[in-house]
Amino acid sequence: MTMVTNETVNNWVREMAEMTKPDEVVWIDGSDEQLEEIKKVALKTGEMIALNEEKLPGCLYYRTNPKDVARDEKRTLICTRKEEDAGPTNHWMAPVEMYAKLRKLFDGSMKGRVMYAIPFSMGVVGTDFAKYGVELTDSIYVVLSMAIMTRVGQPIIDKLNAGADFTKCLHSKAQVNEKEKYIVHFPEDNTIWSINSAYGGNVLLGKKCLALRIGSFLGRKEGWMAEHMLILKIEAPNGEKHYVCGAFPSACGKTNLAMLTPPDYFKKMGYKIQTVGDDISWLRVGDDGRLYAVNPENGFFGVAPGTNEKSNPNALKTTRKNTIFTNVARNLDDNTVWWEKLDKNPPENGEDWLGNPWNGKTSTEKGAHPNSRFTAPAENCPTIADEFFTGEGVPIDAIVFGGRRAKAEPLVYQSKSWDHGVFVGSAMTSETTAAAKGQVGVVRHDPMAMIPFCGYNMSDYFQHWIDMGKKMSDPPKIFHVNWFRTDEKDEFIWPGFGDNLRVLLWMLARCKGEADAVETPLGYEPRPEDIDTTDLDLDAEDLKKLLAIDKETWQDEIKGIEEFYSQFDKLPDEINEAFDALKKGVEAL
Ligand code: GDP
Ligand code: PGA
Ligand code: MN
Ligand code: MN
């Protein structure tokens, strides 16, 4: 391994080591040999467990503290010098104060442990999109997970030695102490400090912290966008290729849509779906006036429960080797893993996510935590697209916003323009899920699925979306979907998963001007007959229910949007105009 010769990097690492006082500092070179050695240490101390080498080669099991199983938004801060720059939707503290507080917590926090220095890249090293970082951590779980989720090692050291900018990331699992848990971003210093957590979303700092919070801040400054979006490639029977980005809040279906398996009928016709990304998109305007997206990650950090041979066979195959499973249940007979809805055969001789003996056949308790996760290399995915590996960006035809709403939101509608689409994104709502700490199933506003991830004032973020629209001569069309509408029996009406392709195909036809629609106060909606329901057990009545817009419900939605907007001092005129039009349209229903 070549030494790090960049003195800015070395001085910073020295300073952090003086504060956290590890026994030793070890640079990660990204080689399999070094990662194997480090893995052995975690297996020896019991921090991680090796799984069945025949059935799940290279796979590991990891368990976090029961109170530390999801992102913690209350403990996540954006520390800009001015409070208004973080905005009303972020937690904030003055950087001087926050640094002082954190320095006390980090003081000696790595005593008796090794500090690993992980040089990593978000995006393919050397491409226009790539951003580099170094994460310092005392957690082997973080080292092994970063090696899956990002590009790690020598090529990044070479970039740093050549003087590349980098994000300074510091993590210490310290005591895993609830009361002193902090995930803190200092966007103006390109710095992230995280302490007292071991849960992926809080500690794999390249992901939510860099690629979204710091990324969105940099994107605004530099004229690009960092978004909570999957990227999907659709190849039509005639060979035409289309790319779609989708922003849904955490645990609302991004990974599933990104790895969609077409229903047989469409497969036979020749439709193919490939995966470019499942969680994060970085977007730039190309010379041709279109919007181009890359997935800056190198792996998938996916929700395990609900993943099965029927719902998402591609995700399941992706996790069959070199994967880390967190907080799922274990089958002690054959040392494999299990989670709810994996199959109808839960282990009798099992261990639940808490490590307690668990009989899946008789127990009424869940075996896996609802936010249990797999961390798997993207290259394992049977549908991974070639474009993922070049990191050069794919031209986006459509952006899809979506939420989890039992009522109100119809299956799908198209916005009337880019600006109207920005309004639709800004007014997005969704029921909360287990992906973040707190109550589940509460409807909240989550603009562009970015409420937990926007690294600056959200009203400036809306303006940035409007401004990006002005830079494009051929912007993506913007849609809104809801796979989660329920009937009188509280059951999902729409079959979802692979069948979501039917809705995507209507969208693509709209992009090409080849499909009909009716104008509603929300935008353009398909008529029931515009959605291809061949082989589907769904009648026109069901589709009508899925597409219905109820006046009273929408009067309430409007109140909700008004209340949400009231926290912002200013909103782009384009948003106010679109909101006024919605109010008028709903009144006229
Ligand atoms: P992500 O966190 O946004 O990537 O969401 P996932 O794709 O991991 O899905 C989260 C949860 O929603 C899982 O339990 C899925 O089984 C479920 N889910 C995903 N897509 C659909 C869908 O189209 N319909 C229904 N009913 N559930 C879905
Ligand atoms: P998700 O990613 O969007 O796949 O749930 C993790 C998260 O948002 O915490
Ligand atoms: Mn996410
Ligand atoms: Mn996901």
TrEMBL record:
GO cellular component, one term: cytosol
Phosphoenolpyruvate carboxykinase C-terminal P-loop domain: residues covered: 224-584
A Pfam family matched in the record: PEPCK_GTP
Cofactor note: Binds 1 Mn(2+) ion per subunit.
Sample GO molecular function, one term: kinase activity
Stated name of the protein: Phosphoenolpyruvate carboxykinase [GTP]
Catalytic residues as annotated in Swiss-Prot or TrEMBL: 252
UniProt keyword list: Cytoplasm, Decarboxylase, Gluconeogenesis, GTP-binding, Kinase, Lyase, Manganese, Metal-binding, Nucleotide-binding, Pyruvate, Transferase
EC number(s) recorded for this UniProt protein: 4.1.1.32
Species of origin: Aminicella lysinilytica
PROSITE patterns assigned: PEPCK_GTP
Stated role: Catalyzes the conversion of oxaloacetate (OAA) to phosphoenolpyruvate (PEP), the rate-limiting step in the metabolic pathway that produces glucose from lactate and other precursors derived from the citric acid cycle.
Record flagged with keyword Secreted: no
Cofactor dependency: Mn(2+)
Quaternary structure, from the entry: Monomer.
InterPro entries associated with the record: PEP_carboxykin_GTP_CS (IPR018091), PEP_carboxykinase_C (IPR013035), PEP_carboxykinase_GTP (IPR008209), PEP_carboxykinase_GTP_C (IPR035077), PEP_carboxykinase_GTP_N (IPR035078), PEP_carboxykinase_N (IPR008210)
Gene: pckG
Binding site for substrate: 71, 199-201, 250, 371-373
Catalytic activities: oxaloacetate + GTP = phosphoenolpyruvate + GDP + CO2
HAMAP family: PEPCK_GTP
BP GO terms, sorted: cellular response to glucose stimulus; gluconeogenesis; glycerol biosynthetic process from pyruvate; oxaloacetate metabolic process; propionate catabolic process; response to lipid; response to starvation
Cellular localisation: Cytoplasm
